[in-house]
Amino acid sequence: MLRNRFYKRTGRRIVFGVRILKSKRLVKIFLVVVAVLVAYQLASGLEPQMRIALAILVMASGFWVTEAIPLAATSLLIAFSQPLFGIQAFDSALKYFFDPVVVLLLGGFLLAIAMEKYDLDEYFADKIVSRFGVNLKTLVLGLMLSTAFLSMWISNTASTALMITLALKFTADVKDEKNNLSKIMILGIAYSATVGGLGSLLGTPPNALAAGLLKDQINYDLTFLGWMLYGIPIMLVLVFVIWLLLFRIFPTSVQQISRPKLKEKSLNRKQKITLTVFLFAVIFWISGTLPEPLAVLIGWHGHGLSTAMVAALVGIALFLTGLLDEQDLTKVNWNTLLLFGGGLSLGSALEVSGLTMWMGQSLVNVIGASSTVIAVVLLSFSAIAFSAVASNTASASVFIPIAISVGISSGISPVVLAVLVAICSSLDFALPIGTPPNAIAYSTGKIKMREMIRAGIMLDLLGGIIAVLLAVFLWGFFV
Q1: Do 79 and 132 fall within a single domain?
Q2: Nearest to 414 by CA among 216, 189, 248
Q3: What phi and psi, each to the nearest 5 degrees, are found at residue 6?
Q4: Which DSSP letter does residue 304 get?
Q5: Which of 30, 126, 161, 340 has its CA 20 to 30 A from that of 347?
Q6: CA atoms of 446 and 204, how far apart (whole Å)
Q7: Rounded to the nearest 10 degrees, how much is the dihedral formed by the CA atoms of 463, 469, 473, 475?
């Protein structure tokens, strides 16, 4: 009897809970629909296509922020809405879901799956970490640089989970009254994983999104090496800034720690083949099209294969060598690929309708042509703020097309602005929900919410400032 009552009560609670979740979702959808209608009415002075494109932008932003419907569904809704309301044909809106840059990401995902499948990522981590001594600050910096390097090639989630596991071994037997050592190591690794993704086109989706939109809207080829010329310097600068700031915020009396013995194992056959494919991919991605000064110096302009073609070759090689099979395809992050395709399709809709050009010109007119620096700062920090409540891909999808248009209207290199906004979209350190590395760090129980917010807000501000300054310093590489 008691058992039956328990099941009845529990069942009622579950049903009640499901009803609440459904009600919340309906409320979110209703609010997004209202926002779309309000935006459409307020934009009555614009041309019809611009008004519709604005409505689609508000709809996509609203659903991405609230997650009232799945992110992938929002992306498909973006493509469906364009032919429905006369922006462009359905095949034109849909072609971005298998854009060459999407193929690049797919190749990167497959390579990361192979590395994880055969524990090559763990092998890299062990080898890198074993090179550093027992001095605390040197060891922490080594862990952070190792994490950043891994995040250039595999997901920041995987690199964070792997390196935090190693870091906890270092702190397990260390006496530290305020537990600051654990906070330094855990936050250092999580933040380094985030900024490590800035180092290559594969590191995080906004990077590839910027390359795709630049190719589509101004026919500019942002090469793998071209991105690294910007991404790696800012990655290294931010790693050092994070390292210094964390030791300042969380002072510790610990000077040295004993390093636990890490497993030393030789590579087996599968690992050697995976490593060969990995090295092939990196070399061919970097040497596709060399920058003109370097090409003239060595007398070779590169092999000419696009980054997407190299990614396709990587995928083919992984399956032909038996490293991956059909079951491994289920591990691909298809949700991210659909989200990415939706971002490209949204950018195309805004560009075709003329809305991005209008928004860019309006921003320049309001601020003034002599205050383009303000426009750059405004775009950068808007992307950072938006990424605090939405994914970095969603933030980049909204602001990169506007950045390109501002660049064209103001005379600033649109390439510089697109790269800058893409990077700023990934600079969210303040909240656990901001990025997967933040969530993993918070889940360890070693970090309090207020501690992450305190360190994260300072890094958000510093990261935005450093990104803007480096954009100006490295301008010559992109013009």
Answers
A1: no
A2: 216
A3: -60, -45
A4: -
A5: 30
A6: 26
A7: 90
Structure tokens, 155: 């997901």
As given in the structure block, the two tokens for residue 125 are 């981590």
Q: What pLDDT is recorded for position 477?
A: 46
List the beta bridge partners of residue 256. Answer: 135
CA distance 88 to 85: 8
Q: Is residue 376 situated within a structural domain?
A: no
Q: Which domain does 131 fall in, by range?
A: 101-331
Whether 294 and 165 map to the same domain: the answer is yes
Regarding whether 40 and 157 lie in a shared domain, the answer is no
Residues 476 and 233: beta-carbon distance below 8 Å: no
* Token pair belonging to 220: 């500019």
User: Which residues are registered as beta bridge partners of 180?
Assistant: none
- Record the tokens describing residue 381, joined without a space: 């920090």
Count of residues for the chain? Answer: 479
**In the numeric block, which tokens belong to residue 73?**
């569904």
Residue 151's closest CA among 183, 125, 187, 184?
125
d(CA 384, CA 179): 30
| Domain contains 312 | yes
**60-100 pLDDT, tens digit each:** 888 877 778 887 888 899 999 999 998 999 999 998 888 88
**What is the predicted pLDDT for the residue at 192?**
93
Distance CA 128, CA 185 (A): 16
Helix (H, G, I), strand (E, B) or coil at 454: helix
Same domain, 306 and 180: yes
Q: Which residues of the chain, if any, have pLDDT below 70?
A: 1-22, 121-122, 124-130, 132-134, 158, 169-170, 172-178, 256-265, 289-297, 299, 301-302, 360, 363-364, 366-372, 388-391, 432-434, 474-479
Task: Give 289's contacts (C-beta < 8 A, 6+ positions apart).
Answer: 221, 223, 225, 226, 301, 302, 304
Q: Tell me how many domains the chain contains.
A: 2
Residue 343 located in a structural domain = no
pLDDT at residue 6, rounded to an integer: 43
Both 200 and 290 in one domain: the answer is yes
Asked if 75 and 209 touch (Cβ cutoff 8 Å), the reply is no
CB atoms within 10 A of CB 245: 17
Which pLDDT score, from 0 to 100, does residue 370 have? 54
Same domain, 220 and 286: yes
Retrieve residue 116's tokens: 């994880």
Determine which helix (DSSP H) or strand (DSSP E) holds 254, and give its type and residue range.
Answer: none
Residue carrying structure tokens 């019809």 = 48
At position 42, the amino acid (one-letter code) is: L
In this predicted structure, what is the pLDDT of residue 160? 79
Q: What is the dihedral of CA 261, 262, 264, 269, to 10 degrees?
A: 170
Look at residues 46, 243, 71 and name the one whose alpha carbon lies nearest to residue 140.
243
Tell whether pTM > 0.85: no
